[in-house]
Amino acid sequence: MTHDIITRHLADKPDAIAPDGSEVRLLAATPRGSMAHFELPPGKVSTAVAHRTVEEVWFFTSGQGRLWRKTNNAEETIDVHPGVSISIPVGCHFQFRCDGDEPLEAVGVTMPPWPGMDEANAVTGIWKPEA
After folding, report:
1. pLDDT tens across 40-81, in order?
2. Which CATH number does the domain 26-122 belong to among 2.30.30.100, 3.30.70.1350, 3.50.50.60, 2.60.120.10?
3. In which region does residue 61 sit, left (phi positive, over 0), alpha (psi from -120 to 50) or beta (all else)?
């Protein structure tokens, strides 16, 4: 089985707005996973969501903020900034905010690939959404 070789460059403008309210720029994808760049402007707070069928890993590349995550087994709020990576298991409730003067940016990998806007369900977070 062979797959096409994919090359994508980070777009100047967003391809979409995520269910959480962040700007999304699509990156390379394969049949088993997809990658995207997420950006949340200064002072903004995402809508809290949970994914129905996908898990994600994120790597923060710019900005300062906080991320809240809650599963059946754990709940935490952490500081996020360049160099921090996190996991978002299937069903995990999460919300993030940009607390700095520059956008909070992350690259995320979704496994399996993002199936569409119906994947994320809004949940109750710890901050009032402002995205």
Report:
1. 999 999 999 999 999 999 999 999 999 999 999 999 999 999
2. 2.60.120.10
3. alpha
